[in-house]
């Protein structure tokens, strides 16, 4: 019953009109008056922001804020793989032989998430990590490795919440939401970085200029809280044993090593 009520309410509020209203308001000068309350409510560390609050003309500009150059040091070990985002690590696990991952006791099809069985096959037996970005987080996305973007594609249309309630009560949010997928070739093989849109605003903007990436280089940003999923091939990634979940992580911190 709880699940049915939740899904009904989300369907009623997650329409094109409400999304459009929020989209326009966040980019309007009227939204500027919400920046300071927003920052205070979510306890955002203003000391690490590039510039000050008065420079932002809209809530959207503040939401996609840049940080000072030394705010997120990138671990430079040759075999390290780093977090692409500031986030909560929501789940870590293995992709089973049927291309399925289990998150919050729900099964998600990697084949559906990536758009086909052929795309999913290379990650069978590999590792997945799920990073959830709340409205309080820095919302720019960075490359976890030195590598080459081999392919990028977009799937899905509408977006549903990807927070704890969305994962628990929603319907296939990780595999059906609007999402942009990048496959990056690196020394350990290939990885997929799935950038999943959040409720109301399907906006994932690419920022990198060429397909050759440096570890820690910015590649995109979200216009609202959302989720990033990393998929690693079998025997290509070794998780740092001290990592727990759910737990906070920041851009540039080590999550694993190239095997």
UniProtKB/TrEMBL annotation:
Site keyed Cleavage (non-hydrolytic): positions: 225-226
Cofactor comment: Binds 1 pyruvoyl group covalently per subunit.
Recorded topology in the membrane: Peripheral membrane protein
Protein's UniProt keywords contain Nucleotide-binding: no
InterPro entries, per database record: PS_Dcarbxylase, PSD-B, PSD_type1_pro
Swiss-Prot/TrEMBL GO biological process terms: phosphatidylethanolamine biosynthetic process
Post-translational modification Pyruvic acid (Ser), affected residues: 226
Places the protein is found: Cell membrane
UniProt-recorded Gene Ontology molecular function terms: phosphatidylserine decarboxylase activity
Enzyme's top EC category: lyase
Modified how: Is synthesized initially as an inactive proenzyme. Formation of the active enzyme involves a self-maturation process in which the active site pyruvoyl group is generated from an internal serine residue via an autocatalytic post-translational modification. Two non-identical subunits are generated from the proenzyme in this reaction, and the pyruvate is formed at the N-terminus of the alpha chain, which is derived from the carboxyl end of the proenzyme.
Active site (UniProt): 86 (charge relay system), 142 (charge relay system), 226 (schiff-base intermediate with substrate), 226 (charge relay system)
GO cellular component entries: plasma membrane
Record-listed E.C. numbers: 4.1.1.65
Quaternary structure (record): Heterodimer of a large membrane-associated beta subunit and a small pyruvoyl-containing alpha subunit.
Purpose of the protein: Catalyzes the formation of phosphatidylethanolamine (PtdEtn) from phosphatidylserine (PtdSer).
Name assigned to this protein: Phosphatidylserine decarboxylase proenzyme
Organism lineage string: Bacteria, Bacillati, Bacillota, Bacilli, Bacillales
């Amino acid at each position: 019953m709880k699940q049915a009520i939740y899904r009904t309410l989300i369907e009623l509020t997650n329409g094109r009109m409400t999304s459009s209203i929020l989209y326009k308001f966040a980019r309007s000068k009227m939204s500027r008056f919400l920046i300071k309350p927003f920052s205070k409510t979510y306890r955002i560390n203003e000391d690490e922001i590039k510039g000050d609050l008065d420079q932002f003309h809209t809530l959207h500009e503040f939401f996609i804020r840049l940080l000072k150059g030394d705010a997120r040091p990138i671990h430079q070990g040759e075999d390290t793989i780093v977090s692409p985002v500031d986030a909560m690590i929501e789940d870590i696990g293995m992709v089973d032989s049927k291309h399925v991952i289990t998150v919050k006791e729900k099964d998600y099809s990697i084949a559906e998430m990536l758009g086909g069985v052929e795309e999913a096959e290379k990650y069978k037996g590999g590792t997945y990590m799920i990073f959830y970005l709340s409205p309080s987080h820095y919302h720019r996305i960075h490359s976890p490795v030195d590598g080459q973007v081999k392919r990028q594609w977009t799937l899905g249309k509408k977006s549903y919440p990807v927070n704890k309630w969305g994962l628990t009560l929603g319907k296939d949010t990780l595999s059906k939401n609007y999402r942009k997928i990048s496959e990056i070739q690196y020394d350990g093989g290939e990885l997929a970085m799935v950038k999943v849109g959040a409720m109301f605003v399907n906006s994932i903007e690419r920022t990198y200029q060429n397909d050759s990436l440096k570890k820690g280089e910015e590649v995109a940003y979200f216009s609202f809280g959302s989720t990033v999923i990393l998929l690693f091939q079998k025997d290509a990634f070794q998780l740092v044993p001290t990592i727990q979940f759910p737990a906070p992580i920041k851009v540039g911190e080590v999550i694993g090593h190239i095997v």
